[in-house]
Amino acid sequence: MEKLLLKPAEVCALVGVGKSKVYELLAAGVIPSVRVGKSVRIPADRLRRWVEELQGDTEPPKTRQKGVNPSKPAHFSD
After folding, report:
1. Which of 37, 27, 30, 20 is nearest to 51 (CA)?
2. Phi first, then psi: what are they for 16, rounded to 5°?
3. Is 17 part of a structural domain of the chain?
4. Radius of gyration of the chain (CA)
5. Residue 36 phi/psi, 5° resolution?
6. Spatial CA neighbour of 33 closest among 58, 9, 5
7. For every one of its 78 residues, what pLDDT tens digit does the chain have, with 9 covering 90 and above?
8. Which residues form the domain of 45?
9. Is residue 32 in some structural domain?
10. How far apart (Å, rounded) are the C-alpha atoms in residues 8 and 11?
11. Could you give the angle at which helices 8-15 and 44-56 cross, rounded to 10 degrees?
């Protein structure tokens, strides 16, 4: 049977990021979590949805070369 709630350390292993980053994302509310008493747990189904949403954000980052103005055409000399 698959676990319904995961410990932060388990999320680290599954997602492939460090413990500090997982706790940072939890504190910021980026990774969904619930409290069980004093413990923080991450619902497995919501973690899976979060990762799927990340995969949907596949737009490449905009890059710009220093000193190049994309609104003006480049002029090249022969």
Report:
1. 30
2. 85, 30
3. yes
4. 20
5. -120, 95
6. 5
7. 889 999 999 999 999 999 999 999 999 999 999 999 999 999 999 999 999 998 886 565 555 555 554 444 444 444
8. 5-56
9. yes
10. 5
11. 30
Q: Is residue 70, in this structure, part of any structural domain at all?
A: no
Q: Would you tell me how many other CB atoms lie within 10 Å of the CB of residue 6?
A: 19
Cβ(8)–Cβ(40) below 8 Å: yes
- CB atoms near residue 22 (< 10 Å): 24
> Which region holds residue 16: left if phi is over 0, alpha if psi is between -120 and 50, else beta?
left
Our count of domains for the chain comes to 1
Q: Name residue, tokens 């460090």.
A: 18
Return the amino acid letter for 31.
I
Whether 77 is in a domain gets the answer no
Q: Which tokens in the block code for residue 39?
A: 């413990």
